[in-house]
Fold these 2 entries.
Entry 1:
Amino acid sequence: MIVLGVETSCDETAAAVVTDAREIRANRVLSQLAEHAPYGGVVPEIAARSHLDHIDRLVREALDEAQTPLDALDGIAVTGGPGLIGGVIVGVVTTKTLAQVTGKPLINVNHLEAHALTCRLTDAVEFPYLLLLVTGGHSQLVAVEGVGRYRVMGTTIDDAAGEAFDKTAKMMGLAYPGGPALERCARDGNAARFDLPRPLAGRAGSDFSFSGLKTAVAQLVAKISGADGKLAPEDAADVAASFQAALADAVCDRTRNALETFASVYPRARTLVVSGGVAANGHLRTRLGVLAEQYDFDLKAPPLALCSDNAAMVAWAGVERLRLGLTDGLDFRPRPRWPLGEVRGGA
Ligand code: KG4
Ligand code: ZN
């Protein structure tokens, strides 16, 4: 089974070809980072136009690299949401056209579902597993029971984890995107210097909150900045390290609660998966590894290139759905909002 995947829901234009033997034949990703960097964030209108400029070429390149002609495909998968709607429309219209012209089945993939199933492509993880999904737009703890069977155990009540990184980095005057810049800045910092809040820590449940942490950093930065409004390099490193430690503590506290509940429902399950762009964070990964070990769970994290937005994950979700006969007509609507809990699928 060979599936073409297309992803255009945020600021990566991507096309990939993946097989049901877990082979990634091509995985093309064009980042729009440079186009958005001057604005310090993703500009939806610029994103949509840029997807439109590049998607045809990327699809062609992916098929060429995979040495897979269109008529050899078994299906075409596309991110139908959630995401920036102008971009999602570009991917959906492109793939609907391809599906119509070739007569191949079309698979409407939820972007979060694609992140959620990636570990089955990379590590053949078996259902059920507990997923921590931390991206620029989402923070969720999900019991992944099967294809289209996602029990959302916790979600953010304000900012997403990546958003907290990005906004904090911006306040500190670091480059966009904030997550990687903040992690670099924290490298030589003293995480114990500033005592920042761990939102919701110690409370029941697995929801996330990061806005209180962000506000505390804003106040701290205002207090210790120089007359020019800038942080001294040493101070910046300590703020970054303290923030990163507080965020990881908060995430681990929430994940611990979810793990306990999950393990009591599925005593034989042994896998905690972390995915999404924030899973690139080394400190967070280390902390999650320790946590997983305490519960005798394995921590699995897809390689970085497949953790952040890409089309291989969309193609793979397409494979998973196609195997179960879950295809879509040409009449579905692209969705800006589409909670994972609303996705339906297998038995
Ligand atoms: O999954 P992703 O590539 O895109 C979506 O949001 O769907 O995640 C991007 C997010 C951004 O907020 C970025 O700052 C964050 O992931 N990120 C990181 C790191 N690398 C990327 N956050 C913390 N540490 C990192 N090393
Ligand atoms: Zn994503």
Entry 2:
Amino acid sequence: MSSAASAVQTPKTFAPRIFSGIQPSGGLTLGNYLGALKRFVEKQDEGIETIYCLVDLHAITVWQDPKVLRQQTREAAAGFIAAGIDPKRSILFNQSQVSAHAELGWIFNCVARMGWMSRMTQWKDKTAGKNAEAASLGLFAYPALMAADILAYHATMVPVGEDQRQHLELTRDIAIKFNNDYDVDFFPVVEPVIEGVATRVMSLRDGTKKMSKSDPSDQTRINLTDDADTIAAKIRKAKTDPKPLPDSIDGLKDRPEARNLVNIYAALAGHSVDQVIRDFAGAQFGTFKPALADLAVATLSPITAEMSRLMADAAEIDRILADGADRADALAQPILEQVFDITGMIRSRRKPSTAFQG
Ligand code: AMP
Ligand code: TRP
């Protein structure tokens, strides 16, 4: 067995490795913070190898102003660091700096089936009532690029919010089909990590809609760049119903807005929903909302302040992203070379040590 062969891993021996990504297509929201960032930090602090990516190639599936995209990518990087990602312990970078993503993404476009992609609910939602013919091909293909993001690192665990569950199932299908088509045991079958009370933070104006950075109304979301007064005002004006808070979780059924605010409180405080219900049973929103606003401001203000401090030095952010991209590239490149071998591409320009011998 050559040394390259012994380096090839099978699913049974994959080391735990976490990968996740966020689109820099708008500012980070409280949904991103509770559903993703806060949990990214927890995973990093558990000592698992963590790779976090600002997926700029995904962002341009919908047109982005180049200046704004650059700014938002730096701002997202600042948000990650301000929330507790340590760019020395985690790898933090932007996707376009590591070419393996686009290259493996193409290979996966050839593995994924049109039927699979057409069934993606996010694609259906994003084109519902609009002219799907006018959507970019990239928007349709984007879950295959997402699979490439993850599998280029042989990542085994992917922390995301609930909205990404179907894309992770597709990632598993792509890994399995690739392994079968080429009769190899090469890609791991990833585990979604969708946990906690805030896997789906809802809009402040409609408890049935996800809080989203792309919602046209800024009142629907809390941004990590909002100041204390703005946060308090948005929570004060959040849609609710006239009833007081119930004394059991069951009482939140059919009250999506009330449930959302209680979930947000629980996630911010690090309490269970049960605990929050016990503390606020019978309280009116006139009491609960100011308590929630205080908690949100106390949690987010230090992050906002640190973000703006970091944003004052764009060159330093770019340096951190370059360092992360170098380290990401070093992990992805040997895996990509093996994929090219497996699929029959001649790579005679490459250094010999990375060939797949499986
Ligand atoms: P995106 O902003 O769509 O790139 O999402 C980045 C990450 O944040 C993904 O893991 C999403 O699942 C998560 N996320 C986005 N919005 C929410 C939300 N409203 N609630 C919970 N998680 C969210
Ligand atoms: N599709 C994800 C979103 O919109 C972002 C993303 C891209 C991602 N690549 C990823 C998340 C890989 C996890 C892993 O939220």
